[in-house]
Automatic annotation (TrEMBL):
One of its GO terms (cellular component) is exocyst. PANTHER family: EXOCYST COMPLEX COMPONENT 3 (PTHR21292:SF1), EXOCYST COMPLEX COMPONENT SEC6-RELATED (PTHR21292). GO terms for molecular function: SNARE binding. InterPro entries: EXOC3/Sec6 (IPR010326), EXOC3/Sec6_C (IPR042532). GO terms for biological process: exocyst localization; exocytosis. Belongs to the SEC6 family. It comes from Scylla paramamosain. It comes from the Eukaryota. This is Exocyst complex component 3. Keywords: Exocytosis, Transport.
Length: 688
């Protein structure tokens, strides 16, 4: 768009604007006001345009000035580059001219090094001899200073040879041979330092200055190693024997000394004393505690802070003790040695008796466990296996002794309540309590696992016990004259089963606190207790069955005589049964009350069942009503006689729902004269 078109467009827009402003007559009065407003706006726009144009012109002027300056600089740079190129043409010739100067510099450097070390070079034999004397006299700082001078002289000369562009191996070998005694001196001095540091915990109490001297020498050697390694990065030269790594050697010597101190505490072995492990661990405890006190009070001032000597020794003792205990475990422990070691590891080591001692101020949590979880779990497993083996051995031996007692010609012992008893429950109780109390010296978790093992072993013992009783019963019935007190010992064994139940309930109340262990352990223990209680209840019932079997065996002929022709004219069968039962009940009175009630109930049920069987077997033929009435009254009479016998020993047993009522009910059925009335008697009997 050209200027003319722009003016035309501006005129059109101005005309349109004026038309809009002057549309009403009253707006004509404001023409002058509109004109002044437009003029002010025009003046403002013109001022802005002038300012913008001025800024643009200033920028253009500055840019032109900088371009002019850059052009001048480029011309100067071009001139300088031309001069540099001209100068570089002469550099190869200059390098040839300076070869002689360079060679002279190298010779001067070698001469300077030789001059500087001339005194040491000529006095090497004398310096070596003097250093050896100082080492033998124990003046280690003087000896080390002299050794450092010899090493510095040797290293400087070797370094100058290293810098030569064409090295002569013979020169290097000759120089090393000349200073060969320096390496031997270093080794001799090192041996003296290691001897001092190896005895640190003893030496620091009497001559701490020796420790300080040895550590100063180690620190000097460490700085010399660092300097040699730093120079190697720049030049590739490393002096012979560097780095010596005496600081690492120091740590190794200190650790070896700790290992020797711990291993030196073994004063006895198992062959000389059963308590060798207790003594050994106590000696270790006293030694480590005393050593840690010495380290905290005397070693800290002697060792540089960079050693962090307290934590360093703590870690060394921790590691060495762990390795030593693993060796003891691998050598196989026996019996109570497992408990001794577990208790020491879990309680003594981290407790106030050793590492947790208030004067040591050791962070036990940071120290970590003495034995790894795998090693500790294996140790606990071996301990539990040993507990199981001991249980098996003890219980087998106890059962053998107990079984011999059954064949004696003397009755079993009685408790204060006149109940027959054997020693088995008390022996088992003492075994379990002893093992649990010993396990409690280790940790609650171990005690819980021992409790589980104990319950399982007691459950297994029930099977062995039951098998032994069956052998005893079989021997008795093979020849009843051989065993005089069979009944009384079976009574005692039944009481022992009840005693085992009481023992288990006591152990449960004393050593198991539900909620103090994990849910898994609580569930397992509850299951184990139920299983063991049930198995001894079952064995108890079998003992009662043995008693019943003996009584029935003695009365078998009399039961067979019931409801026979002989029985009609003779009361002897039932009289004998009642008298015999009364005699047995006198023996049964030595049973615990629970066992007595159970046996009496078994006998009553069996007598009623045998009598009922005799009635239903139709041993008699009753042809007349008079015969039926006579037999029925006899049955009722004998039922009452049986009830009387049992009422004397267990009154509550025959008061309600007595099996004797069945006998009476059958008698009522027998004496019914009208066949149609039998159903009236049978239905109530069936309901009962």
């Amino acid at each position: 768009m050209d200027v003319g078109e722009a003016e035309c467009e501006a005129m059109k827009r101005a005309t349109l604007l004026v038309e809009n402003m002057l549309q009403r007559p009253d707006q004509l009065q404001k023409v002058e006001q509109y004109r002044r407003r437009v003029q002010r706006k025009k003046a403002s726009v013109e001022a802005m345009l002038k300012t913008a144009m001025q800024s643009q012109l200033d920028g253009v002027r500055t840019g032109l000035t900088q371009l002019q300056s850059a052009l001048t600089d480029l011309r100067e740079i071009k001139t300088c580059l031309s001069e540099v190129e001209s100068s570089l043409v002469r550099v190869p010739e200059l390098s040839k001219d300076l070869n002689e100067c360079r060679a002279e510099y190298v010779r001067h450097s070698q001469y300077a090094a030789a001059m500087e070390n001339l005194k040491h070079i000529f006095t090497v034999p004398e310096s070596v001899e003097k250093t050896e004397k100082w080492i033998s006299d124990g003046r280690l700082l003087y000896a080390h200073q002299c050794l450092m001078d010899l090493e510095n002289s040797r290293d400087d000369l070797l370094f100058e040879l290293h810098k030569l562009p064409h090295q002569n191996p013979n020169d290097t070998r000759m120089l090393k041979e000349y200073f060969a005694d320096v390496h031997k001196l270093s080794e001799e001095l090192g041996k003296q330092v290691w001897v001092i540091l190896q005895r640190t915990l003893n030496t620091v109490r009497m001559k701490p200055t020796q420790i300080v001297t040895a550590l100063r020498i180690v620190e000097r050697e460490e700085r010399a190693d660092q300097f040699a390694l730093q120079r190697q990065k720049g030049s590739g030269f490393l002096p012979p024997g560097r780095p010596k790594k005496w600081r690492e050697k120091t740590l190794k010597v200190l650790e070896e000394a700790v290992v020797e101190r711990i291993e030196g505490t073994i004063l006895e072995d198992r062959s000389k004393s059963k308590n060798w492990l207790i003594k050994h661990l106590e000696v270790i405890r006293l030694l480590v505690l005393e050593d840690m006190k010495v380290i905290s009070s005397l070693c800290v001032p002697c060792f540089p802070p960079s050693f962090d000597i307290v934590n360093l020794y703590v870690q060394m003792y921790h590691k060495s003790l762990a390795n030593h205990l693993v060796e003891l475990i691998d050598a196989k422990l026996e019996d109570n040695e497992y408990v001794t070691l577990l208790s020491w590891v879990l309680n003594v080591y981290a407790g106030p008796e050793l590492m947790g001692h208030p004067t040591l101020n050791i962070n036990i949590a940071k120290l970590g466990p003495l034995l790894e979880d795998k090693v500790l779990n294996n140790l606990i497993s071996e301990y539990l296996k040993n507990v199981n083996n001991n249980y098996d051995s003890w219980m087998t031996k106890a059962l053998e002794i107990e079984e011999k007692e059954w064949y004696r010609s003397e009755p079993p012992q009685q408790d204060p309540d006149s109940h027959y008893k054997t020693e088995v429950p008390q022996l088992i109780h003492d075994m379990i309590r002893q093992n649990l109390e010993v396990a409690n010296t280790t940790s609650p978790e171990v005690q819980v696992q021992v409790l589980i093992c104990s319950l399982e072993q007691v459950r297994l013992f029930a099977g062995k016990f039951d098998a032994a009783v069956k052998r005893y019963k079989d021997n008795y019935y093979s020849d009843r004259s051989q065993i005089q007190y069979y009944t009384t010992y079976i009574i005692a064994l039944a009481n022992s089963c009840q005693g085992m139940v009481d023992v288990l309930m006591s152990i449960k109340a004393q050593f198991w606190r539900p909620g103090t262990t994990t849910n898994t352990y609580d569930t397992e223990i509850a299951t184990k207790f139920d299983a063991v209680l049930n198995v001894y209840q079952r064995v108890r019932n079998q003992m009662c069955d043995h008693l019943l079997e003996e009584a029935i065996e003695d009365l078998q002929d009399h039961f067979n005589a019931l409801l026979t022709q002989r029985w009609l004219h003779d009361t002897e069968p039932m009289d004998t049964i009642c008298l015999t039962l009364s005699d047995y009940f006198n023996d049964y009175s030595h049973l615990h009350q629970k066992n007595f009630d159970h046996v009496v109930q078994l006998v009553l049920n069996t007598v009623a069942m045998r009598y009922t069987t005799a009635i239903l077997q139709k041993r008699l033929t009753l042809k007349t009503q008079e015969d039926r009435k006579l037999v029925a009254e006899r049955i009722i009479s004998e039922a009452e006689k049986v009830a009387t016998v049992f009422e004397q020993v267990a009154p509550d047993l025959v008061k309600f729902d007595s099996p004797c009522d069945v006998m009476k009910g059958l008698a009522e059925v027998i004496k019914v004269s009208d066949v149609e009335m039998i159903s009236l008697e049978v239905h109530p009997l069936l309901r009962r």
